[in-house]
Amino acid sequence: MALTIDGIQSASSAAELDQKVLNLALTLGTIATAYVVVPWSGRLASAYSVINGALTTADETLTLKNSAGSAMTGGTITVTQSGSAAGDIDSASPTANQTFSAGQKLQIDVGGENGSAVTAYLSLLFQVT
C-alpha cells in the first residue's frame, strides 16, 4: 500500500520520512572531542564520513558516544591511512547506546596520529521517534 499525504502519493515509506540527518565537519590529525546537539528524540541509525584529503601517517578513529559518554556498540568509524584519498567514505551502524532525547548531546572522540590536518565531513542519520 502506498503512503499518501494530502492526496499526493509518496515514493518514501513512513519510516524514511521519520529520518533526519545532522552534518558536521571535524579536523583529523589531533586527538580531540567534539559535541553536537541532537534536536530530536530517536536513535542514531548510521554514521558516514568522507575526507577531503589523504591521511599521511596513521589511521584515524571517530568514536561515537551517547549523552552519558558511553561508546555506542558498533559506533566507531575507522578512516584508514593506507591508500587513503580525498572522497574516501567510511561508515558505522551503531546497535546499542545510540538512543537520544531531544536536546541531548552526542559526543565524537577523534583518535589517531595522522600527520596532516584533513577534514572529515560527517553525516549522522537518525530514526526519529
- Count of domains: 1
Level-2 CATH architecture: Sandwich
| CATH topology term | Jelly Rolls
**Portion of residues in helices?**
under 10%
Number of H- or I-type helical stretches: 1
* C-alpha termini separation: 22 Å
Name the beta content range: over 45%
Write the CATH homologous superfamily: Galactose-binding domain-like
- Would you state the CATH class? Mainly Beta
In N-to-C order, the SSE pattern is: EEHEEEEEEEEE
Rg from Cα = 16 Å
The main sheet comes to:
5 strands, antiparallel
Low-confidence stretches: none
- Described by its quaternary structure, the protein is single chain
Which secondary-structure class do the elements indicate?
mainly beta
Mean pLDDT: 91
What global shape is seen?
globular
Number of strands: 11
Describe the structure.
The chain is mostly beta strands and 129 residues long. The chain has a single domain, classed as Jelly Rolls (Sandwich). Helices cover 3% and strands 57% of the residues. The chain has one helix spanning 14-17; strands at 3-5, 8-10, 19-28, 32-38, 42-51, 60-65, 71-79, 89-92, 99-100, 104-112, 118-128. A hairpin with a 5-residue loop joins strand 6 and strand 7 (71-79).
